């Protein structure tokens, strides 16, 4: 440990953001650049019978236009990155997602044609002149309806719109018999509503083509530029990767929605080559609403059984998962391997089984949104536990404590916990976080306050939630065996410059997470150099060796571990040079505070002298290569398993149904922490999004498939005056299988907070007879539930 | 149409299409890309700037409406390289993550503190409700404004 690790170092990257010098994709202007406007279907399901471009082609500034049939057949469309086969072994249905629709539009916003002009305004003018004739078809937006016989069929070869069915766990017989023998069974039907991720920076893509070198460049608002390059080159455009550079510069938030390979990326690269000029597309906000990957949208039936002592004996879950009109990059993994595998929760339940039916509907594609499957799993578990506690008349905290997996640190004496749903948890102290949360909240007195408030006619509620998530994704061989079409390692190249400063090229990508600070802290401490001497480079395939990018709370646990591996190599080589300069053996050297010292003497050589020697190797170890530059790839041994406990305290206005969130308290365990300020910020942001789901947010598709709230005027996201200040603390249970002991913090807040808030509101209304509520808990919905219960 | 304005202390004159939005004019004609566009409905506040000392959402004004105006954007907040105390406070209190909403958030905070140098937490939250942030949960933005308020004591 040096002077930086564990400290709330102020962020290095902030200087450019607070002075307006950040460079996001739409800020980039290339010489001769043109502008694209995409003509999108106004209907959710329609045959495209004619596209008339004649007027547009005469518009001022017109450069070019393309429709689906202009794109070669060989460019079939963007792929899905994860194959989840049917229970009976049949291959997953995988309908194509063309860059521009080929004869049929499948959701409102589906891309039908593209017009390119000299200016953005001219492109919009010309696009407005394009006449598209549609033959409207019946649409289906609800997943359970889409899977039924007789529903409108979206794709050829996808009967009943079903992409796959899937199951995991102890077996249906085991859970059914355990439920049959249970002393108490709690049942819930749960809708986990569809959300729109809504990073404030709209998606943007610029294609550029240099015909003198046959070289493509794509600038894109992406969380993982190498993944985009791999998918686009290998599966879409058929380009060799050495002729394609993908740059993801500053990115204005992602939350999952900028992981996926979108049609606009490949389209801009393809168009740039056709017109031999750079071309930029930037989404308008409503375009983002209609085409960004959306989140959640599960309909679930769940049952949890208890014995007469209140011990959980079984959990049975059946989920219908809406994937939207096309299979987005990770869409198929979200309701399965990121959701079903978390159904053990923190509990010792001996029989757990989940089945999932996944299908397509005439809606925007659904994929990972912050938490991705784990919030949905946690919501099911924690609504069941809290409802069961109320039904059985026991304290919900006590019920959880009775059923928690006992503490284990992942050592040989306390090995990982094998769940009923494939995963093996790495380390955990679940009672530790809950007990700390109860202390922080002064739970016993809070319950007395609630009784007093109720006696005064006030609707006060307390809601708890505990969670576990699988992060730090993921061991490549494991995910490969489960259908992933990529490895999930990470790469780090550390270049020590001759005078001892350091540049890190990392495959992780920062779009708000503060890597330029956290990674610099790690490197500066390890090498004993000032943090100012470290530069972090990310987001450019022409600079970084490779990378799988940032999602699934993986940057520190996986990307950071790759950095540690490279640092170890740097120090190992540096020691050989130092030993030569000190005329000593490497075994006799200690490295600390930026210098190698011969143990027991005052003979030492500084890091900067060693690095200079590496590049000016006049007096140098025989046989050792010059230079000090090391690259590592780190493939994790297991997922990491952050966990925590959250509490919401609410008061509901009896006249209007408005929920006043009085307090939000969390105790999270994300393993070892490099920068507490940044980790707290990640929890804050996650909690705000989770509260947003509970109280405000939800994509509303009408029966014809129109997204009724496709703007910031209509889609309710948390604003500053919707939220309280958050009360945070943490426990630290290090990850036993990565060198930093880090578990990941990006999604924790979102996963734990949503059920805590819903549990609190249901608790507030329970004296009125309300036992369940469907999100979002808008005043209208809460008021209606109160009236119905009367 | 000819339009003249002073931006961050420098006088500019341009010939623009009448329909050009002020935010487009700043970003495309002057290269001031610190002012961002996050929506098209003046809901997100990422394009907030100062026109004659008042915060406005620059996606809702035409450039020609600002003929003769004195405009300040995020690029003009620092003085001779010294950050404004609000800029410093956002860094000090980790009031930003991805940075996209930050310029608008800083300018809205500036307006609040001009009008109310010692705002309560509730007043800060109310004053910033026209600016979306999806990253921070607003917690540290509130702390940043409080910190800036204390700096000017």
| Number of contiguous helices of chain A | 19
Structural class by sheet pairing and helices of chain B? alpha+beta
Strand content of chain B: 15-25%
List how many beta strands of chain A DSSP finds: 28
Report on this structure.
Chain A is of the alpha+beta class and 790 residues long. Chain A has 3 domains: 15-137 and 201-252 and 258-291, Alpha-Beta Complex (Aldehyde Oxidoreductase, domain 3), CATH 3.90.1170.50; 295-474 and 638-789, 2-Layer Sandwich (Aldehyde Oxidoreductase, domain 4); 489-634, Aldehyde oxidase/xanthine dehydrogenase, molybdopterin binding domain (Aldehyde Oxidoreductase, domain 4, 2-Layer Sandwich). Helix content of chain A is 28%, strand content 23%. Chain A contains 19 helices and 28 strands. In chain A, the strands form 7 sheets. Chain A has a 7-stranded mixed sheet with strand order 3-5-1-12-9-10-11, sandwiched between helices. In chain A, a hairpin with a 5-residue loop joins strand 23 and strand 24. In chain A, helix 9 runs parallel beside helix 18, helix 15 (555-582) packs across helix 16 and helix 17 crosses helix 18. The longest helix of chain A is centred in the C-terminal third of the chain and has 28 residues, at 555-582. The N and C termini of chain A lie far apart (61 Å). By secondary structure, chain B is of the alpha+beta class. Chain B has 2 domains: 2-76, Roll (Ubiquitin-like (UB roll)); 85-151, [2Fe-2S]-binding domain (DNA polymerase, domain 1), CATH 1.10.150. Chain B has 5 helices and 5 strands; from the N terminus they run E-E-H-E-E-E-H-H-H-H. Chain B has a 5-stranded mixed sheet, with helices on one face. The longest helix of chain B has 14 residues, at 102-115. The radius of gyration of chain B is 15 Å and the shape is globular. In chain B, 56% of the residues are buried. The model of chain B has no long low-confidence stretch (mean pLDDT 97). The chains are: A alpha+beta (790), B alpha+beta (153). The interface between A and B is large, with 59 and 60 residues.
